[in-house]
Specification:
single chain; 14 helices; binds ligand BES; binds zinc ion; alpha/beta
Length: 496
């Protein structure tokens, strides 16, 4: 799908559909919508008076052969209350419009921004919304004869003076959405099509194409580095583990600037190991590599956006299987850092592989760490599929990330990390244990465990277990992988 800035006035654009949006207010037919209404002999005002056109969030009104327009259809999307309107709403409107029209076999459409909204940010949001909405999870369906696709989207409403800003926003939006879809494609892969080895190949290919430095650690190298926590998870599987290291170095690095370490959990399938999970719903555990896929997607975007700080991405990857050589509850493992871990539950494996992941990222020179992981069912209990759980060891760094999440419209919620929780993971027979001792707060103990391996470095943990996968389709997004947190992390790195 192509997305570009249109050159003609919107009324003269020949297209399958002209899309715009209106607000839920006493008179939703205002400004540019009133302009369209006049050309259409008052049809929109009539619909508004009859209560059919209200501007309620994502209300869809489709008009065929609208008078006064060259477009074959006019689609008006409800934008909700004007005071609450922002980039996140615009992104959803563009996405919902795309999916609505795609379902009706439309091939191309023009998206008209409202008066005073022809900005760089609008163009970026529309590109992000449309491209993410266009992503489908039907890769493995063989019957494609009823497949529908949108060929092109044009933006309208940009004056000559606003063109440069529009083009810039579109370009950035495309980079970010393409990266998000790259992540979603990886997350969508079932575990037989995406083992740690295959994920590493995909990461390597991405990095080479994007011009990023990449190193893949195989099981031998992982053993030499004494990544005992990662190896303990991997030993239950016949598939060997991998660690992907992808590095972005700016052309003119500033002396004293932070080096950001992005660490992502990539368990390509989580059976739970010997502490095996129930059969029901286990198929979903193919998405247990979403944190790693997110970090790889972030790197792909950064390669194009060229931030001014160095970024080191470390993705430890393994299966969590109950094979004959699998670790057993009570086993004591030594992490790369030298800390000993009592593995009381083999299903709490994400924190084990991240322990070595964050330690290695530090060793490679990262001064600030962010990890992303589908870490706990407890975060789903706490925040459902609405908010990402945010845990941080450093207030300014955490505030910076939360500001980024706000700016890009990804909902995140700051969770507590009081010292009292440290007690929960105190080990009886080793330094620490990998689950809390039965006092609740499961998402926090998971975070506390990872913190043990971050030393004094400012560190943030994102628990995306509830948000990385949509169990149901949204009007603006297909069912399945969401690519959550990618936009926030790209914004965070770009803000340095
Ligand atoms: N991958 C899971 C987390 C998860 C659970 C994601 C449910 C999505 C939905 C993780 O490895 C896990 O199994 N965590 C355990 C930890 C527990 C044993 C302390 C959990 O949350 O049940
Ligand atoms: Zn698990
Ligand atoms: Zn897991």
């Amino acid at each position: 799908m192509q997305i570009k800035l249109g050159t003609k006035p919107y009324a003269a654009m020949q297209t399958d559909a002209l899309v715009s949006y209106l607000f839920e207010e006493t008179d939703p037919v205002q400004g540019r919508i009133a302009e369209i209404d006049q050309a259409a002999n008052g049809l929109l005002r009539k619909l508004s008076k009859s209560g059919e056109l209200t501007g309620k969030t994502l209300e869809m009104t489709l008009i065929h052969a609208p008078a006064g327009l060259k477009a074959a259809r006019l689609l008006l999307v409800g934008a909700g209350k004007r005071e609450q309107f922002n980039g996140a709403t615009l992104r959803k409107i563009a996405g919902a419009a795309l999916r609505y029209l795609k379902g009706r076999s439309v091939k191309n459409f023009v998206f008209l921004v409202r008066e005073n909204e022809a900005t760089e940010e609008s163009a970026q949001a529309i590109a992000e919304g449309a491209l993410a909405a266009d992503f489908e999870t039907d890769k493995y369906k063989t019957d494609k004869k009823n497949d529908k696709s949108i060929d092109s989207v044009s933006l309208a409403g940009y004056s000559d003076a606003a063109r440069a800003a529009g083009e810039k926003g579109l370009a950035r939006g495309c980079v970010i959405a393409d990266a998000q879809n790259f992540t979603r494609d990886l997350v969508n892969e079932p575990s037989n099509k995406l083992t740690p080895r295959i994920l590493a190949e995909r990461a390597e290919a991405m990095a080479r194409e994007a011009g990023l430095a990449v190193e893949i650690l195989d099981e031998k190298r992982i053993a030499e580095l004494k990544m005992g926590a990662l190896l303990s998870v991997a030993q239950g599987s016949v598939e060997p583990p991998r660690v992907m290291v992808v590095t972005y170095t700016p052309a003119n690095p500033k002396p004293g600037a932070p080096v950001i370490g992005l660490v992502g959990k990539a368990v390509t399938f989580d059976t739970g190991g010997i502490s095996i999970k129930p059969a029901e719903g286990m198929e979903k555990m193919k998405y247990d590599m979403a944190g790693g896929a997110t970090m790889l997607g972030v790197m792909r975007a950064l390669a194009a956006l060229k931030p001014s700080v160095k970024v080191i991405c470390v993705v430890p990857s393994t299966e969590n299987m109950p094979g004959g050589k699998a670790q057993k509850p009570g086993d004591i493992q030594t992490a790369m850092s030298g800390k000993t871990i009592e593995v009381l539950n083999t299903d709490a494996e994400g924190r084990l592989i991240l322990a070595d992941g964050v330690h290695y990222a530090k060793q490679l020179g990262a001064t600030h760490l962010v990890d992303a992981a589908t870490l706990t069912g407890a975060i789903v209990v706490a925040l459902a599929n609405v908010n990402v759980g945010v845990f941080g060891s450093d207030q300014p760094f955490t505030d910076k990330l939360l500001a980024s999440s706000k700016a890009v419209g990804e909902k995140m919620w700051h969770m507590p990390m009081d010292d009292e929780y440290r007690e929960f993971i105190k080990g009886s027979f080793a330094d620490i244990q990998n689950i809390g001792s039965g006092k609740g707060g499961g998402a926090i103990t998971g975070a506390m465990f990872i913190k043990e391996f971050t030393g004094d470095s400012p560190w943030i943990h994102l628990d995306i277990a509830g948000t990385a996968w949509n169990d149901e389709a949204k009007p603006w997004l297909a069912k399945g992988p969401t690519g959550v947190a990618l936009r926030t992390l790209v914004h965070l790195v770009m803000s340095y």
